[in-house]
Structures
1.
Amino acid sequence: MLKVIEKGLSNIGVIFFFFSTIDYLRYDWIQCLVFFMDLISSFNIFASGSATLSFGNPMLVLKSSKFYKRLYSCSSAVDSEASYLTKHIDSFLSNSVLDSRTLLSTHAYIITTGHAHNRFIASKLIASYASFKQPHSSTKVFDSLSFKDPFLWNSIIKAYFSNGNYVQAVELFSKMPFFGNLPNQFTIPMVVSACAELGLLCFGMNVHAFASKLNLFCGNSAVGASFVYMYSKCGVVDDASLVFDEIAMKDVVAWTAIVIGYVQNGESDSSLQCLREMHRVGGYDERPNFRTLEGGFQACGNLSALTDGRCLHGFALKSGIVSSHIVQSAVLSMYSKCGSIEDARVSFCEVVNKDLFSWTSFIGVHAKLGYVCECFQIFLKMQANGVYPDGMAISCLISGFANSMKILEGKAFHGFILRRNFDVDRIVYSSLMAMYCKFGLLDLAENIFFVGHNQEKDCWNLMVVGYEKAGLEMNCIKLFREMRHEGIEADFNSVISVISSCSRLGAIHFGRSIHCHIIKSLMFEKVSVVNSLINMYGKCGNLTMAQSLFHQTTQDIATWNSLISCYADSGHPFKALTLFDELISTGLKPNTATLVTLLSACAQIASVEKGRKIHDYIREQGFEYEVSLATGLVDMYAKCGQIDLAKEIFDSMDEKDVVSWNVMISSYGMHGHGKSAINVFQQMEENGARPNDLTFLAVLSACAHAGLVDEAKSLFDKMKEFSIIPTLKHYACMVDLYGRSGCLHEAESLVLSMPFAPDGGIWGSLLKLQNAQ
């Protein structure tokens, strides 16, 4: 280097001399050479032929170097050096750089020709380095500039943002004002999107205020759309909606942001409403693109809105957007979630490039309906086509075993995935726990939970829900307490399960503490959570608090059902029937659960007139006679003394579950028709329905009221055939029957043979029988 300096070479000469001997360049070397350029006198090598080295003319050395040939290969022999310089820089600005080596060489050329401080060239360099995943090199270019305007700040922020370095993008934005530069309409969308990815809601709100102060919202849909995306991503969809409403000229980006935002926050109904409004507006800029339709299909799938989904599919076909792979996959996923196998099959066949998502969706639709054999066949076919399953695909298949209640097969598949060494992630373990909880095999679910997976939030929540579903309320509450102690966040399902457990146990004090937790955790806006609180307070006898919560929340049909059920179950059937009239006046339509509760209220007061009124309403509104609704009618008419009408409705039922059979047997029993109750029990067996412990309790009670001792003995012994172990209630019923029939010896023998200690009721019946004799 000293030899070169002594010879008096110019800046360009020194640089090109070194480039002629270097085959691979690094940015750090360029910076080093630029430093030496400032120490050397300026002498134009192109204008003078006197500057020579001992090994010949420097221009000849330059033109024989690899670097020169690489740069000048496209130049015409007649072009002047200045003309080539312009063309080369123009080419760099207008075309993408093919590789990082060419970028480094071009950067060196730009520095040596004195164009490094040109703002457009510098911006191009920043973007080019970013495209090769080298934002640190972009920063060096940016830092070397003496003058930085918003255009260059946007370039460096974009360099980090496009590479997923969101923290650095936000930090650069924060530095802008300190260097005398204010953000513009191009800066804000990148920074706000970075806040969304990082979950920086508070910082994003500050940016919102800053952008409003700078008046950047006027006539710029991109700025507004970025805030819609940020608020939605951070879970504040109401604020996203407010920002969306403030956008004067809404384009497809803004509409897509709000449609997807609603879906991501569990408000699929609102998402479809926005999509309908977008279609109604119908301008060129408001036409849905493939991302908008993807959000719409997700909303339809979440709501199981098959009709809306088919309409949207037709629109996609008409618009020609359905050829997009993203839309094809979204259509398949929608039909899968809606449970439409035929539509899903057609959509699956239309997908050209079947990826893992497509196969998983197709497995999912069969799993949802419990078609396990088909699920497994698709699972094997997927692997035969070279697509390896991930945790989601395996979990779909596991849910198929759970939905079909195939216990042995589910256990076998658990062993299968372990033997085949599939990737078993937290999704698979959560699915296995959910499957075993649904099977009622809590010990196996606990094995998975306590052996290495008790640090995952999903597993904790699943176990809490599993205990509640299995009727282990104390375990549910205990695990929830441990969960809170470990600092693990409970989801809505866990909270609802704990509230239900408190409701069954009458644990009003712990229920109130959960109520406080709900308020502190901002869960009170979730209607399903408030509905569970209404149920709890109602079941625990605090109807005043239940009524207060009812008026504090948004009232959907489930909220009305909760309050009506509270009054009906608490011995206030007239208030429950009054609430039904209020419900009709609001314009909400009762559902099956509402009507079943009202029929129960009519049965409590034995009001056949009010019962007929509810029955007429069911006919007028065209309600199908679902099993639960028809069973409610049977129970109501029987308790109102209309046993023949109850039997008529029972016989007209196309489908009967065990509850229906139990209600009909109990109805005959309460009317003293023991023989008829036994006949219904025999019909139940002939129809292949399996009786449970409540069935035997109902038929034994009917025998007790009718004094049918021999028949009762036979039925009591028959419980063993169905592997049903008699409970205290069954023994009490038999002792009562012997007491009514004066069979003291049989009663004493039965009490002495009991596998557990008799309660006060049984001893009382036995003592009463002895006194009578």
Note: The radius of gyration is 38 Å.
2.
Amino acid sequence: MFDLYTYPFSVRDNTEYTNVSGYLVGTSDRKIARTRLNDVIILKFSSYRKLDTDEELVVFEFLEKTNKFYFKTNGPITTVTRKSGEFLNELLIKYNLSKNIREIINGSFQFLVLRNNEAYFVHCGSPSAFVISKIHSYQFDEKVSGSQGLGVSKIVKFKFFHAELQSGDRIILCDRAPSTWTIETLTEDPRISISHLRKTLLQKQNQDFSAIILQVRTGSGNVHQLKLENQTLLSTSVGDLQENLKSEESEIKEIIPLNTDDSPVNEVDEPKLDSGMLSTELSDYLSKDQIPTPPFLQEDYSRKEDNLRSRPRIERGVTLDKGEKIETSLSNKSQFREVTSQSGDDRGQITNSDTDVKAFEEPRKPIINRTGLIRFLNSFKLLLVKITSNSEKINKSLSENTAKLISRTNPSSKDTGTTLSSTSMFFMAILVPILVVAISMTVYFRSGRVEQHDKFVFQANQLVIQANSETDVTKRVVIFQDALLFLDEAEKYGTTETSDELRSIIQDELDNLQGVTRIRLQNTIAGGLDRRIQINRMIVSTSEDLYALDEGTGRVIRLVFTNNDYDVDTSFICGPGNYEQTVVHELVDIESITISNSLNAVVIGIDRGGNLLLCSVNKAPTAIKLNLPEMGWGQIKAIAFNGYSIYILDVDEKTRDLYRLPANGLKFDENPESIFSGNIPENLININDMAIYDDQLFLVRNTGELMNCSIGIAEINCIQSIGYGFIQQGQTRSITDVVTGVDFSQVQTTQPPDPSIFFMDRLNSAVYHFSLALNMQKQIRPNFVGAVAKPEGPITAFTVSPYGIIHFAYGHQLFFGYLP
């Protein structure tokens, strides 16, 4: 068991702060799930904007609720962490949808779980984490595709990482890691203390950041909060920085400005450190049931005026200093007291009876209120629009009233009894120029947008003329593509019949040059699906019904084919649940069942734990818990089913394999067997998807290469890269290992009357059609020119029926069309 030492700090505007907003350390309480007993968690929410005092209170309240939710929830650690992240996301979305907020709260999220010697990382958004170890160090900063962090959408994507820890290992959690932070630069200093790692991070920083340094050491499960006892003033110059890192102040500070001038700093000799000791001086430690709640959570929220005046903090009983030993002293804890914090986590001080420390002033806040300015400009814009819409009436009225005004303001006028007062004349002198300027600005803005649109359309048209006079095919393609870019710019200012017509001409020319077949699509469902749904897999049954897998919930949606479109079957059940003592988690892949069976099952799906789910129409699903392979299940990526065997692809580095399991009348009661007989390809982890046709298995890698396995009963023969065939000029066939400029992320086969293999090109939102002999037939792309409903994002799934209906999914949007 380990003790945990934590040190949060941040750098903003060349100043170091030793308190981090949106940070919580959680340990087990009395009312917890048994599987969470020895867990220690760290939650870090990093807002994308600066939060005020009230908003920081809200975030910490939500983190505390998430902490309680985690420790009360049973299940595998990855499931519980994901559910906890979704729980926090729901809290933020409910807050953002309330009417009394000015700006939403959203940001990146880091969730670290420490269990015995294991560390589990969960990221949402684009945070970074580092594990610094003597044996093997890791950098976890893979961006979550399509993720905007928490607080925006109910569909959130998480990335999971894992590392084994040993005593002395250090962990860094950061919201925006500087580019200079790499495993190489952070491990240059062999010393293992948090103090030296902090100095390394400050030395290598080139931007603002917020980070938490953690270190585990052999202990009894206690948590130690570190603070600065003696601290260094740092220079922005790298040379001065290395020199000044040797000097330390004798005062206790929470805000340490980085030294920006050339003022001399007294140097002191740096003490020699024992490599086996943490470079801290321990004043006190906190046991699991004594660890204080995070900042702002000890306050009574009903006294809002007190919260704004003074906010409590974690009492730091552990000091981060240049001492060489770890000492414990319960008496020292009473020497420290908190001083009023006047401006969030950026100000405040900790004092003791022996030291007189003055609070540092926070940099001045900007005088201009940006939120108020934006509201004023929006209101002014609405005023201009209203004035313009009634410009004719206003002009007529101004003309009539101006004539009256001139006559009334004329001293020689006979109608002296109705002349305006001096005050009225003064205000009219101000109001008239304002109205004239407002009308002029509105007319200018409107005409400016039209002018910009026409300008880009004209440039696109000039490129079309140039392309038509070009004889080189490659150059013509490039010029037409440039013309489309100009049209994209033009349509940012609106669409017109001219721009639509020109786009149609350019697309037709490019399609002829590139061999693209365009098809018209229509909405699959009138009104569309819920925007929270994210379709990532689709299959079609023999009756032309469509089955779509929602990535967020892991359930299958059935859409019944009607005369003109599709209707959702709300009674169809196929997703996570407890089915006769077999717990099925979110499905990761689905396949259609085309053979007759006693269950009348039409869809087979699998979850990450290796549980199969057989789904039927008008009937409850049947769950089957598969026998574990020798190495267990790692990361199940895809399945393929040909009616008599199911093939399961595991792409985890440790358990990578491709298993075959006989159906045995859809019982699947045998043990999974590897098709490779022990000689497992190393690049199996790079497989994106797989599909099967009779005894031919096709696996497409993320590099674009196509692997083919003949899976007969006698023996299995696999070709690592079978290649793609292209017929040139109707005669010569050429083979290429990779189709350039594409990203084949999904593959499907179709049964007779037109047996084929299709690949989804995620990069270009296209589908490539090949024969089973792997000869290119056509490239299929949708035609949305002039369409009322258009996709809002990239393509996420597709499927093709044997009868020539092709379906496209763009997140929650579904379309279908007919192949020529």
Note: The two ends are 66 Å apart (CA to CA).
3.
Amino acid sequence: MMKKLLLLFSLSFIFHLNALGQTNEIVGPAFIDSASVIKTGALSKSRLIRHITKPKLYNPRNRGINKVVPGKGLPKVKDPALQSKMGDIPVKAPIFSFDGAVTRSTPSDPTGAVGRNHYVNAWNSAFAIWDKDGNEIIPPSSLESIGGAFNNETDGDPIVFYDEAADRFILMQFSASPSSGSASPPALLFAVSQGPDPVNSGWYTYRFDLGSLPDYPKISLWNDGYYITTNKDALEPQGKEIVYVLERDRMLQGSDNVRILGFPLPGIQNNGFYSPAGFSVMGGDLPPPGNAPIIYLQDDEWVGVNQDHLKLWLMNVNWDNVGSSTISESQEITDGVSPFTATFDGGGFKNLPQPGDNSEIDALQGAMMYMTQYRRFGTHNSVVMNFVVDVEPTAAKHAGIRWYELRQPADGAPWSVYQEGTYAPDNSDRFSGSIGIDMRGNIAMGYTVVNDNPANPVFPSIRYTGRFVNDQLGLMTVQEESIVEGESPQPRPEGRYGDYAHLSIDPVDDLTFWHNAEYFIGVDRVNKVGVFRIAANEPNDVGVVVLVGPQNATLTNSEEITIRIRNYGTNAQSNFEVSYRIDGGPLVTEVFEETIPAESSAEFTFEETGDFSEIGEIYTLTLSTNLENDSNTNNDSIEVEVKNLPPNDIGVTSIDSPFTDENLTSTEEVTITISNFGGEPQQDFPVSYQIGNNAPVTETFNEVLEVGEDVVYTFNQTANLASFGRYRIEARTRLENDFDPSNDAETISVASLNCIPEGSDCSQGDGIFYFELGDYRNERIPCTNGYIDFIGGTTDLDRSQGDFTVTVETGFAEGEREKFSMWIDFNDNAVFEDEERVISSEVIPQANRSFSYDFNIPRDADLGQHLLRIRAGDTNFSGDLNDPCSVMAYGTTHDYSVNITDSTLDIEDFILNEAELVVITLPNQEDQYRVVMETSFGEPLRITVHDLLGQKLIENQVVNDGDAYVYELDMSYAAPGVYLVRFGTRKVGKVKRFIVK
């Protein structure tokens, strides 16, 4: 019989630690209770309840209020810990893999643990047991088949755990509603195998009643208990029990009156959903009792967090006097923690696009992903962990995995960051990670990959990478391997994915990883179990990993060839042959005479050089080792291509500032990124920027730009953008003898606006997530802070047609609440006025479906480029949809551009009536002029220059650059006097006089 104890005292003394100078708090348990055992028989002799595969949405995410501050936090640009290239050390493909669960439950909550002889897999809301060859022993069965406290309980969020020190399996789920018609409150349910064999040993089951739903529970092992973290009371976690500890020793014995203690997490901040983690012991070597760590990320984009860090609590349980047990704020780890952005879409649960027209899926933000593996070594203790981050916190989301190894020099000593990294080696999204560390200190990480790029679509797929203990810190050095490539998208509109993945380590060798995660076949959610290892298991195995040099550059006929050789085996190696061949030519063979330790790498430079001297040629190198008695010849050789680059080829690859904002100034910094595409370093070359058709600003880049390098350059002369309106900015390099002028320049559009209504909440689907007008389409628009600048996106609207159609889609609709309005800034004052509103409060009647709306352009609308603003949102809440500056409680505001044309006008109308021709004298450049004729006419025109005697000095063809015809005119050798410049055709044109002094 359960005995409820009310905590009649509060422990609230305060102490200080050197961690950001904060006051750290120690508190006692907020909850004490106990439960008695219900024993059940062996599954092999029980009547199993068949698992029924049918669509069902389990426990919708328990999410509290949004606690994200839009625009707050670092980084503002790319993740500083980013690993943008894959590792180059090959490992073997998975040993084997098999499909575990096949279900239509949403999400499936894949979990599984490997023991000495079995693999136990669970999901919403069933389980199965396999032998270690992937053969099914216990078929998919409902969780209630375990019996005892699990009778009639199938609410889910299961976790399977293997306690290696005790050689027992544990299966946990929560109960969200009263069981079997009783009035029981929500609870945590546990089943502990009575022996090592989960099939034949029977189970001890327990039900621990709680005051509210223990959402997203995760179990970890410490010496003195099983520790459970939850996403409980997310609205206001302060003072509420979030972490629980159970009497491990008594549970393993199947005792009655097993106690549970619940603790708050003092000082925790979250974004409305969260999942802290307990350090969980791997291997049979348990730590001393006490100081059980709990850890959680703290994102400075959240309310109350001023710097990204890892927050650590220590729990000390006294089972002889439970009231004296404590949890304390221990450390706020900032050293070694690079800024990160752990928030997607303001905290919403639909984040990452899938291929095709499918729902975005949940990135699983705000969670320390399961599990946080702790391992003891001779010289230190290590723990590894991971969580998802946005590596490019701009409108274009890009999910990567931030991972850490923390180390502790001795029991009881502070923890510190030993290494960190953010794994995002290409343009695909990576998330739902699970990380582990083997007995040698090698790290493996499994995760999910998705990419909506039509040129390289990736449906949710399961892959892994890793690193060896002696590799360069902060990098996953192992080549990415696939467990399974997805065949289908996540099919449901809620976007729920997995909720977690689960990587465990085989206790037999403490080196083999078993990873379980979710992918899709049609409407089925499938849990794929992949078995692999990072560590070497063969004595003699070497191979070439990578060509160190030469790399793509301007090359000669005598280039040194340097390779990196990997010893994949367990024996040290020396005195073996290495060779290379260029384009199938003669084989060059030499001897590597040094010693490479086991699981290590070394470089070797051949004495005989290679000829790579032909500019533009791509050479193929075959690089090989030839170790006698090599046990795996498949990894001996690699083929690499090397290109001889032209010496001079640079260009601007992006304009990084200014950007669209309210009330831009007359002193805006212009910052660009310059790249060296050529084969030689470059220095002292001109760079310029130009606002519209004004005179360019030219400066000199004085630093050295290395081959393949990107550098950021800020011009000394600022830009005057003080007037409201749209600006076209072009930036370019002006390198003499540049090989490819087509990559010299980049152009962007920015606007100085009178208002930008940031701060609307779109995490529930409000606002516009699809926009189509003319030949411009914007799909899968992210949420961000409710406002996004898309003014670089434009389409032509022919005013002679009069009527047009715009198509939009929202993620939320209820009755006539969600409405849509649109403006075009016809007078170009960057103020969206009432008379410029072309669509007003149109109802969007249904979510996740496109609706079209008609609008009209006045016949006398000014030709050329204009700003366009769209807004949509829930009009039942605060904010005026039809006030373009009002911040709506729920919705979005987006800005675009439109180019108004008129197909009924002929060239004479454009040139004689609409166009303006000007001649600009360029500053600080004697007798240099810029001839500009602004017009929306698009066909090529001719320019001529005559003197007053009628002699033609120049004739050329000019194309419209988007806003105007522009021609750079050099008159430095012309005689002083008056000249005539003309733009037009042979029949119609416009003429301007100018003077050369």
Note: Residues 81-533 form a domain with the Methylamine Dehydrogenase; Chain H fold (CATH 2.130.10.10).
4.
Amino acid sequence: AAAAPAVTLQLADVELQKKTEQFGVTEQGEMQVLGSWQDLEDRATWTSNVPAGVYDVWFNWSHGGGGGSGFTLSVGESTLEGTVTNTGSWQKFQEDRVGTVIVDSDGELQIGIQPDEIVGGGLMGLAGVELRPAQGSRTVVTEDAWEFRFEPVNVRYTRFLIEEYLGEAVAVSHVEISGDDIEKPYIPTEADVLALSQNDVLEIAGGDIVNATYTDEVTQANSGGSRLLTDRLQATYFDAQVSPIAYTFVRGGNGAVNNVRKRLKRVDPGERLIVEIVDYDRDQTSSPDQVLFEVSVNDGEPIQFAATETEEYSGIFTKEVDTSAKVEEGKLTVKRGDRIYLRYYDEQNTFPGHSVPREDVVYVNEPTDAKVQFLESRAIPVSEGRNGPVRVTYHERPEEADVSSVAFEAPLTVEVIDPDAAKDSLSEVVVSVTTSDGATADVRCVISGAFSDVPNSGASDWALEEGRFIGQVVLQLGSKTSPEIVPVTPDMPRGLIGGGVMEDEEEGVMLDDSLVTRVLNVTGRDEILASYLDEVRTDDKPQPIDDAGRLISNGVLACTDRDYDKPITQLHVGEKLYLVVTDADQDSSDERDSVDLIVTTEFGEKETVTLVETLVHSGVFTGSFALKSSEEPTAGNLQPGEPEIECYFGDTLHVAYVDSAASSESGTLELSEDIPVVIGTDGLVAAFSKTFNNEKLAVETRFHIAESYFELFKSHRELGRSEEERVDLDAGRRILREVMEDYPDPKYVPRVSYLLGQFAQELASYPEAIDSYEMIVRQFPDHPLAADAQYKLAQSYEESGDFDEALEAYVTLAATYPRSPLIASVMIRICDHFYKAEEYDIAAQVGEKFLERFEGHQHAARIAFRIGQCSYKAEEFKDAGLAFDRFSKLFPEDDLA
């Protein structure tokens, strides 16, 4: 509302009620002054028309007696108490704000000044009174109310916070919140809030959670009981979105034509754009609703349009907007380079109390000069001991380089920057890729923000804005005569962006890319050329844009078994050395190519050996060389017909291969392998007196013997007969070693480890016992002894003093083997531990769980009594009494009852 004008009270209009004869208005120079105010019954009153509003009351006054006089100012029904300021002289006047008053309605008001205390020879010298409209927020305090007045503000909720107060509590009897019209407050509401709960309408506000429950009386449960079904819904506001879109028609593999939505970014003059507004808050009726939005060209005047809901309850609104290069009715007049701004005011959103403009922009297309380049790729192999595919990284080519290096293990990736071709999110361009050998492939490049520094959440929008296209095609070793469309294999990269164009030129149909794929056949000596025809340029002359790349691949060297499968760690004189090099960029022709390696030994042998490609365009090179015994080898005497490497017992072979084209910083990669030549092997002679035809019988017999030694070991240990104890221990361990040597079947390992763990546990060798038990539970979790091993593992931790690990092992036992009969013993041990540690509340909780699960256990009475002890020692005497009472009722025949 507009601010009310200031109200000035004229001294000529004052009405006086006086007891002091001299009290009245006098002339002091050019100024009128109301003075000689010396009696408490002297009163001044004005009657004036005052518009409704909030006013600051200003007095122009003087006081020469030190100030301090008190008075009461009444404005209608509002009152203020004030104290006169000392101005230093009765003739020196100054303006001061006395306070703030509120006038609720227009009309005549009486404004009066009544003295409360007169100090220093008079109340004041009054030269003027003015009611000025208050600026900003004001707090008006009266005897029974506080009023807070401030500039209008859009709010969705209010909060009244009392940060500090005197006394024990604050009592607020009534709260009103209103706008300009105080006669129509927002709070209290017109409707009775308590009565709303009785009607048939669910009133909700943003942030409310609606809980729905339903009792299913008839269910399929065996017990025949009912079932309570629940669900919840949170009421909130939706942040609207405005987007320019378009539609296109796409034919599916079954021949059906589908209407596909796409995000629009650029249009040519004369094309149509569709404005889509998603605002579920504006779906307010059972029929299609409408919302208003604005469209402006550059900084021109906005034009208002109405978008209609696509269907009932969808909350999605669309409007078609046509453009034109010339002035036409009902169309936007645009030219190249213009920007079309779309703006929608979101009145209900998650930013409380504020209408937020949602904006987007559409560019009127203009010619741009395209750029094309191969993204450099590098294949990073996995660390030793880990399985998995190589990790591929992509980056832009350094400025000083003319040719991009592309890894053979990764798809060939092409980047095109051409904003005028990026009209919508489904725009695509085609790049022709050709090798120097003559192999070709057309690559489909689509809008993509992949392999950029932009976060994934906004990468697609950024790519559309910049006009960035990405396309990928699989690389395959081959020549121009090799097949261009091949079946998809498990080793091929998946999830290609764009991909190779596989349209059958004769049939005009698309092939199934889940079964076959387009590849680019390339060899190590080829240079790869990408060519993109930029049809729309700033000089209006179509021009092909080119870029070059070259294949690189990190070689892999291995010394393997005779099947070229598994790597080996040692060699034997008289056998053969099998070498494998995998290096795709060394495949350079339509013949079987070869690579050279250098083999040296510590005894002086040095030969250059040749590995030959296994198949044409395989990129895998193999070779085998006999190991000839020679204490003094001769370097350089390798015979190609019968290649032999001279070495001797205890010698070491060094195999080295230099990859001249690798994805390293230097461009080369040196690979080497060191393989020792063994001195010999140890023979094994075993003497035996009896052979078992039945292996199971033999193993079981030995296990029984070992277990018998273990029982003897425990008996002798209890009797303190250390010599017999040591003999029993050695004999038991010897039997177990013989079992593993004579019958090296993994199925016997758990039982052997369990017995060894028992021996170690009895000897208090807890680390050894823990290793034995852990091996069983980790490697043989399904073995019948696994649960017992887990229990023994926890026992070993507990006996070694590490109860934290023991507790974790006990909990693991309960979670992994819930049906194990050892669970009861576990819970008893845990309860006893916490009781001894004086953590009585935890001990009592474990005891309660024990009674719930093992009510008929032989130690249930002991645990029930222990619960009462825990509560008693925790000084929870009421709980202790209840626990002992339950104990006496459940176990009346127990001695402790």
Note: The chain has five domains: 7-149, 241-364, 374-552, 556-676, 695-890.
